[in-house]
């Protein structure tokens, strides 16, 4: 359960380009599960929320090329395994300690991501959980995806930082998580 929990937290962060705070605000009540995608509406205010600025829904697409990398596979299994102990907890990620099974904090999400990165062989003295956000957005930028799509999907408000380093083309069929996974194959 520990490995599955950490893997789901890592994939949610990497494939959304979001902060741990956003991952902690996900709710099963605001989740739509379909055969090829899972969508989360973010109802709460976030760090980057403001007048007229709200996080767009997070859409996680199936990665059919390799089930071992598919967020839908892991998230569905995680929800199935935690369903008997979830109670009325609406946050998808809950503690795996048998006596708790409670929603976890942003700090715990960050800790899980860092632990997963360590297991994967990432040097966590240099890269921490926020590195998933920087790495995924920078990777897509290097693959020539539209800057506005990346910034909107990841909830970044200042495009000047990216504009100094990258040039982009238009892509109207953009999905952040799918774009990450498609660059791997």
TrEMBL record:
Domain (Tyr recombinase): residue spans on this chain: 3-170
GO biological process, one term: DNA recombination
Cross-referenced Pfam families: Phage_integrase
Signal peptide (residue range): none
GO molecular-function terms, A-Z: DNA binding
Source domain of life: Eukaryota
Full protein name: Pro-Pol poly
Record lineage: Eukaryota, Metazoa, Cnidaria, Anthozoa, Octocorallia
């Amino acid at each position: 359960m520990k490995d599955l929990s950490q893997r789901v937290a890592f994939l949610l962060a990497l494939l959304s380009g979001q902060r741990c705070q956003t991952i902690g605000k996900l709710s099963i009540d605001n989740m739509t599960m379909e055969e090829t995608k899972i969508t989360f509406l973010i109802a709460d205010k976030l760090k980057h929320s403001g007048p007229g600025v709200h996080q767009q829904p997070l859409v996680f697409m199936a990665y059919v090329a390799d089930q071992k990398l598919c967020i839908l596979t892991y998230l569905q299994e995680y929800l199935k395994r935690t369903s008997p102990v979830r109670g009325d907890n609406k946050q998808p990620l809950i503690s795996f300690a048998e006596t708790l099974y409670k929603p976890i904090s942003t700090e715990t999400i960050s800790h899980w991501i860092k632990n997963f990165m360590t297991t994967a062989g990432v040097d966590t003295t240099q890269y921490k959980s926020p590195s998933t956000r920087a790495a995924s957005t920078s990777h897509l930028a290097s693959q020539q995806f539209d800057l506005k799509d990346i910034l909107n999907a990841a909830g970044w408000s200042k495009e000047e930082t990216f504009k100094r380093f990258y040039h982009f083309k238009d892509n109207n069929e953009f999905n952040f998580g799918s774009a990450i996974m498609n660059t791997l194959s």
